[in-house]
């Protein structure tokens, strides 16, 4: 029976990746993520999701896809046909970002969820810090790099790539009709670009290449893309410029490589980074060294010697933002934004965050780097892989991917079934 591919997320949007590959009576699901919160997200703050109806509410308003046979019946509205059991299914997660794994806690009991050991460690540390998945941890299965596993007639192999979180992976799914390759999220300007290019080598000549395309819809970057060396250099320079005044920080704690480098740079400048309680608990669960929690320092110590500290408040929902008025803001105080919360101007929280900084007289300096492949790198990647069909997802501008010298570009329709050549076909299961 021919293999089919369906795209239940990531179609015309950034995030929400869900690629369902079916052969015979078995299915492989690559990622099971949420949309990145944005202005159109009905569950954005100040809305608080009802945990006991987390999935049912999302299904009701179209904020979760109606993928047959994968959800936990206990989390579904009584009488909903989604509670019916489907074909045997295994899930393979590319990395520990909510837009790739945010729905795996809603999976039907018995569905195995495979991921890199590093990804599983991050997810379990989040749970230990009180920031776990709605529905709880799934049946995690650690999958070693380059170690194929069999699931029904298909074979799945994980390939470590480079992204801004440990364990980031692409996948090769071998079917009787050929290989479907999936990048997950990927970049080529981080500390380990060789990992990303290795995926290109392993995927070369595949039947279908499914690639993230986040950068396709973004403005052209002025000048060279920023690297991790640029980020660390700018952090060190900002600490030197602050000279005795408090420095505030917003960085992404799941980027453990950057966390470790920032702790080291701060120490060299005679400062310690102070984290909010939840982030400190998360980092300690992953054995990150040199972690200091706000409760161990306190406001008085920061007020007494502001130049000794770099402070990252917990502003995930902005409820703690009035506390910023108590901080000792000096003439050289700056808020360094290194891809932390709130994430950026596309978020509903950003405008309010900027209003508070303006009133408090705290300038914002953005020193982060992009976690995804640039448009140029994406086109080079596709050229090197030279697949029969290329499918750009995880982007709001998939039409801007222009393969040359062979590959057919498929702009998929949500939930429609395709063969590995990108031709739409009728589903063979209900």
UniProtKB/TrEMBL annotation:
Q: Where is the Metallo-beta-lactamase domain?
A: 15-239
Species of origin reads: Catenulispora pinistramenti
Keywords in alphabetical order? Exonuclease, Hydrolase, Nuclease, RNA-binding
Which InterPro entries does the record cross-reference, listed alphabetically?
Metallo-B-lactamas, RibonucZ/Hydroxyglut_hydro, RNase_J_2
Q: Which residues form a coiled coil?
A: none
Q: What is this protein's record name?
A: MBL fold metallo-hydrolase
């Amino acid at each position: 029976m021919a293999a089919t591919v369906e795209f239940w997320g990531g179609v015309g949007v950034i995030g929400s990746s869900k690629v369902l590959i079916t052969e015979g009576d078995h299915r492989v699901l690559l990622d099971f993520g949420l949309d990145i919160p944005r202005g159109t997200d009905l569950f954005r703050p100040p809305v608080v999701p009802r945990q006991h109806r987390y999935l049912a509410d999302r299904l009701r308003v179209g904020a979760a896809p109606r993928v047959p046979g994968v959800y936990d019946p206990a989390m579904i509205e009584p009488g909903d046909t989604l509670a019916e059991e489907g074909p045997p299914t295994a899930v393979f997660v590319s990395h520990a970002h909510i837009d790739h794994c945010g729905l795996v806690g809603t999976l039907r009991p018995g569905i195995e969820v495979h991921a890199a050991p590093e990804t599983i460690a991050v997810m379990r540390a989040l749970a230990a810090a009180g920031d776990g998945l709605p529905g709880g941890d799934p049946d995690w299965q650690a999958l070693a790099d380059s170690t194929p596993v069999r699931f029904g007639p298909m074979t799945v192999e994980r390939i470590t790539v480079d992204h801004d979180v440990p364990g980031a992976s692409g996948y090769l799914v071998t079917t009787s009709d050929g290989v479907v390759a999936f990048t997950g999220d990927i970049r080529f300007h981080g500390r380990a670009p060789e990992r990303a290019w290795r995926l290109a080598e392993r995927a070369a000549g595949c039947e279908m290449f499914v690639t993230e395309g986040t950068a396709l819809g973004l403005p052209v970057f002025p000048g060279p893309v920023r690297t991790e060396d640029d980020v660390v250099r700018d952090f060190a320079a900002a600490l030197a410029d602050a000279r005795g005044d408090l420095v505030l920080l917003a960085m992404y704690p799941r980027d453990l490589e950057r966390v470790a480098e920032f702790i080291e740079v701060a120490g060299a400048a005679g400062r310690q980074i102070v984290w909010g309680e939840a982030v400190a608990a998360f980092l300690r669960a992953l054995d990150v060294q040199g972690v200091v929690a706000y409760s161990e320092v306190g406001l008085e110590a920061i007020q007494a010697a502001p130049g000794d500290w770099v402070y990252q408040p917990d502003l995930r929902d902005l409820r703690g933002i009035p506390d910023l008025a108590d901080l000792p803001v000096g003439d050289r105080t700056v808020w360094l934004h290194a891809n932390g919360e709130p994430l950026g101007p596309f978020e509903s929280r950003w405008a309010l965050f900027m209003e508070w900084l303006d009133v408090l007289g705290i300038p914002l300096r953005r020193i982060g780097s992009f976690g995804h492949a640039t448009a140029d790198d994406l086109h080079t990647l596709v050229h090197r892989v030279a697949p029969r069909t290329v499918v750009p997802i995880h982007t709001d501008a998939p039409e801007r991917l222009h393969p040359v010298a062979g590959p057919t570009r498929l702009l998929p329709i949500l939930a429609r079934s395709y063969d590995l050549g990108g031709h739409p076909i009728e589903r063979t299961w209900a």
